[in-house]
Amino acid sequence: MPSPVFPRQRSEEAPPTQSHRLPAGAPDGLGLGSLPPAAADLILLGDLGGRYATGAYSRLGGDGAVRPRERRQAESEHGHRITAAIACHVARAGGTVEQLARLLLHPEHEGGRHAQVIALRSGHARAQGYVERVWSNATALVESSTDVASRGESHEDLARLRERIETTAWRGERGRTALRVLRAHLNFAQAAGGRLHFASERQAAEEAGISRQTLRQAYELVLKPGGWLRRLRVGYGTEGSTWYLADGPADLQRAPVSRDQSSQCPPDGELGEWATPETDTGADVDSRVIGLLMGHDAFAHHALGSSALMVIGALHVRPGQTPGELTVSASLSRATAYRTIARLEGHGLVQRSGAGWALTAQALRGIGNSVPEAVAAPAPAPTAEQAVAGWDVLAIAYGTAGVAAARRALHAAERAAYRAALAALDERRSPALTAVVDGRTVLVPGPRADEIPTGWHGPDGSVLDPVTGRAVSGWQVATDGRLILLSPGDDRSYDELVAAHTTALHEWETAA
Question: For residue 280, which of 261, 263, 257 has the smallest C-alpha distance?
């Protein structure tokens, strides 16, 4: 089970307070005083605020309905999340797996209750193996994360990540779609001020200009296996999912040749038909431009598409590139590069610039030049065929106008239905029962567990035993037909009940 805990962007933490000490008889090694106060409280007291309980006690069924988990399974999931969080804290503090095991298995540490239960039920060896597996996941997550101490460092970190994304070869239609999804999450991360951010699948799909199903495929098949994006927690209710942007694979030359596009014979790398992993060192696109344009209807799947986004992004960084150079910088096949350039030229978006191609002023409208020297050549007066009023006209020409608006309307309807279902679940509603009486539909009240059959009612309000027919002592039938259990507490006055309530409340708060 993947750990739902991931290192966060954090501001400078105050030094650990001296109030967190190991209890008497605690093991030596990593002490609670060397951990942040939040980590020390989590180890000593457990998850008092329920921070790691979200989603542990409920699950989504195959029909999309939220169903409660079994009690033991829910408690196990909650305990595992607490254990994973403690392991990440210890890993960031430079601890070892032995120190983590001692902290978790200490009998006075409530945060290690899950590991202690495993040791009690299955033995110490099984608990030690579980702790080692959690430690392995925690160290891998901590090593792949970046500690950010200030807002300025956070912006620098995101800028380095954007550069890494822009210089990665995104091959095939699937890779270009994954770039759009990753750029959407980068927009969310920049708004959040760090790699950790919150967004729903519907928000990301609207930002990337693709369907929700396509977004899921890009995440599951490209971004998640490639180490670019990780979902830490699935959203619930009005809260979006929790995401973390990672640095991708350690070796960026790992991308194989895409098999999404069919051909009669494989591409020949020596002829420049496809950039090979050995020669693919010049991928460079402006993801900012891609992020600005990808949500428009003109770049939908049946319109200009993702290949046009890649060409525009590559030419925006370095105008004057030839189709052969675009196969490397835009990660396109030679056939796709020629076909995309011809389509963009037909719409007056690119033009000849020496031996290569450059964006026209019409294509640069609204996105500007990335660098001062990246200025397109003066565009000649457009002909009647090349005159295009803007991206909206292109969307109308391709028949994709209104796709983004329809997608947003569909997502809004889905959100409303989902929230209505959650509200009905919270209120524990049941389907209404109706009956037709004299041609009219009459609502039949639902049965209650405390209702008794009419034959059990005694003449004086007592309850009759259905076998012997005698009155049962201690029970009585109320005027509304409900069953009442008589007890000595029923004879107390109002003032006595108030005093009892105050005493019980005081005992509860003292125990808590």
Answer: 257
